[in-house]
Model the fold of this input.
Amino acid sequence: MCGVHYLVQWSRGLFGLGQSFILLAATAVSVVVSSAASSATDEPPQSAVASLKKESVAEAAYVGDEDCRSCHQNLVSTYHLTAHYITSRLPAKDSISGKFTAGSNILATLNTNLFFEMDATEQGFFQTAVMRQSPTDMVYRAERFDVVIGSSRKGQTYLFWKGGQLFELPVSYWVGLDEWVNSPGYRDGSAFFSKGVTPRCLECHATSFKSLTPPLNRYDKTSLVLGITCEKCHGPGGGHAARYRAQPPPKSPSETAIINTARLSRDRQIDLCALCHSGGSPLPSVPSLSYKPGDVLAKFLDIPIPAPNAHVDVHGGQVHLLKRSRCFQSSETMTCTTCHNVHTPQRDLATFASNCLACHKVERCGVFPKLGHEIDGKCVICHMPLQPTDQIISSVNGKQLQPEVRNHQIGIYPEVHLP
Ligand code: HEC
Ligand code: HEC
Ligand code: HEC
Ligand code: HEC
Ligand code: HEC
Ligand code: HEC
Ligand code: HEC
Done:
């Protein structure tokens, strides 16, 4: 966090503060031009990234979702609406949730000499930090939104490229407030542009990429396949597609040439989800992307198992928490897909409750004698309550923001009541 280091990259301009909001438009444009100029040498245009996607996955007989679409049209259409698929995207008007309109595009900070402005320009979308050095002297730094992370159920964080390295932008977006906020973990009142993005972040939020370490945040830009695609969970599908295009079609499941996770053992099924839903960001023990569904995850990732009474954060901790539930421990079949169909968005809590009824009777519930059928369809509210995470803390106006996540330790929470 060396201020001097990044100040070198700041540009300087002379503006009276009273005029700064008006003049900033001009400021941003001049920065945009220089940033676009530098990117001409070391950054391919966004459209090139998109068109290269297919080539880079093709190497390993990965064919991409559009190929699956020719035979699994409905699955692909509904899957493309899910949080998994849109969890990382290129920047565009409809992928960035924050507003760029005048008045809604400023994030003031606790430091009265610093604010951020978000601009949509012809060269792209930019975040500019504006720091007042003296009443007449402003320094500013602008960086482009290059990658959008987050489906916007809760929020989004943005990344930018600099010389082949990927960094996090200081301003994020918060759905609950519909506002720009300081990025999680960033000190309100600072303008920090040097937080590198580790491979683990992309492994959970994208499909594939090529690392060019060192440093840890250097990548082959053209290799980045954004969104979580079909083959992340089913393995390479090139052979499968070819098999079904040939006649006659396969006669037995062993000939389908693709992984149907439903036929894996319970442990291997959970391993697939645990790749991204077992909390923290443990460092991979071997190159992380070599894990394929069906593999034993522990051979690829060193995921610490929390001690029985240790606190497990609700964010990303679904696997550890579910495993602590009596439902999971006392049944031999429960997996994540007992309740989740990952091929389509699922939002209705009553539909989730119907999954409980596969194993429980409403009458078994301890509060049934008192509340009767008022509890129908509401099991999840009391037995998997929403709780704040301690792992993603952002701030705005000096206030701390913590998203609420459903606790997957299905259990008895006497303090929770129906609204
Ligand atoms: C040429 C047509 C075709 C293409 C292309 C295709 N599939 Fe299939 N796939 C089928 C058919 C037919 C079945 C069997 C019926 C079903 O489950 O829909 C099938 C079954 C599957 C199964 C279940 C396999 C099993 O053993 O139970 C999975 C998983 C699957 N496809 C995934 C994919 C993915 C991922 C892609 C894209 C990479 C893809 N498919 C591309 C035709 C195709
Ligand atoms: C170990 C896997 C993992 C890593 C590493 C990880 N995330 Fe996440 N992230 C998740 C999961 C899982 C969720 C959503 C589920 C939850 O909250 O439990 C999520 C949620 C988010 C969300 C909120 C999305 C929304 O709208 O709800 C954002 C933004 C986000 N992550 C950004 C990042 C960034 C940026 C990085 C790296 C710098 C990162 N995450 C690292 C797994 C991960
Ligand atoms: C997040 C992981 C994940 C992603 C992404 C994913 N699937 Fe699946 N898929 C699964 C799981 C898990 C199952 C097994 C479901 C079960 O246990 O009932 C499955 C089952 C299937 C089946 C067999 C269906 C059946 O009823 O037996 C097909 C076909 C399939 N997926 C195709 C696709 C296609 C096409 C895509 C992309 C549009 C896709 N999947 C994306 C996890 C995933
Ligand atoms: C490659 C990493 C990865 C894998 C594998 C993965 N997930 Fe996720 N999952 C994520 C991320 C990241 C998010 C958060 C997406 C967002 O909101 O931006 C997420 C979100 C979800 C959500 C919330 C979706 C919503 O719309 O609220 C569910 C449910 C979920 N995952 C279940 C599963 C299950 C079940 C499996 C295993 C079959 C699985 N995931 C495998 C990374 C993964
Ligand atoms: C695959 C079957 C299965 C499913 C699905 C299931 N459970 Fe359970 N659950 C069990 C078993 C088995 C037990 C332990 C024996 C018992 O109490 O019946 C249990 C125990 C419980 C307990 C007692 C927990 C404790 O710590 O004492 C609660 C509460 C509960 N389940 C609620 C739910 C709710 C709510 C859902 C849906 C979100 C659900 N269960 C889904 C099988 C399941
Ligand atoms: C007994 C049913 C059940 C099982 C089993 C289950 N979930 Fe969930 N899950 C739910 C419910 C209910 C929600 C809340 C949906 C909502 O609020 O929209 C949820 C939400 C989620 C979310 C979004 C969390 C949030 O609040 O943003 C993720 C991620 C997730 N589940 C992953 C998993 C994974 C991974 C597994 C397996 C380890 C799993 N789930 C097993 C019922 C279940
Ligand atoms: C208003 C909150 C609330 C709702 C809604 C609710 N429960 Fe419960 N449930 C409880 C509480 C509290 C207990 C513990 C009561 C006690 O032990 O005195 C409990 C106990 C249970 C138990 C454990 C019983 C035992 O003998 O250990 C099961 C199983 C259960 N509920 C299932 C369900 C199912 C299924 C639903 C949805 C149809 C549901 N609950 C809806 C609050 C709720």
